[in-house]
Request: fold
Amino acid sequence: MINFEALEAKKDELREQFLNARPFPHIGIDDFCDTEKLGQLVAEIPVVQTRSADYAFSKNKFEKSKIKEISPRFTEFYDAITSERFQKLVQYITNEDVFIDADLYGGGIHLGGEGSFLDMHADFNYHPLKPTWFRNLNLLLYLNKDWKKEYGGELRLEDPRSGEKTEVDVPFNLLAIMHCREYTLHGYDPISFPPGTYRTSIAMYAYTIHEKQLEAARTTKWKVEKDKPLKYLLSKVWVPAVRLKSMISKSSTKDH
Reply:
């Protein structure tokens, strides 16, 4: 399903684009998959009812990580993204020693409904269930057919160290790859998609093994402006609150 031959033919160009991107290494790769097969996959996306656990920091966002058994087309896609060939391609483009999380923990199908948004944030660094797995890269395959700029939903990127910002368009069959670090803020503004349609993507996360943690484990860190005082206050207590919750009960993210 992945257009391996075309991507491998220009892997040096893709590597240069990724490594030299600002505000931090990232890339948007067009025509990632066979268009016809990907269109068939989109038609088979089921109703997703599990809401994101981002609470006040997102709206109308739904997730489904267990995608392999949805249909034969999803199985084909899953096998491609977890293959050694894809792993080697991602490693070369990003110059990182990584592997794709086959469980798609926190990933899989992501749907944004009417007015959906996701506040700017930096993701957790070590896998909550596998503490030697360092989350190195986010890979986001966008499935928004006939997407137009006026719909919104672009992937916003910001480095708080420099204040530099940019955006990545989210059309059908574009794969975005970005570093996952404490300073790699990302999110998207409220969308205006046509009624009955969703901002649709499949999220995959690539990890690197650290035999011992090289930095303190953290949960998602949210960036909220002070002109939203209640949400701003929540963002400040979010990290210790999540740490306390994790001591009491395990995440159910892997169960859907």
Observations:
- The CA atoms of residues 17 and 27 lie 7 Å apart.
- DSSP finds six helices and eleven strands in the chain.
- The longest strand covers residues 108-122.
- Helices lie at 4-9, 11-20, 35-43, 72-81, 84-94, 229-248.
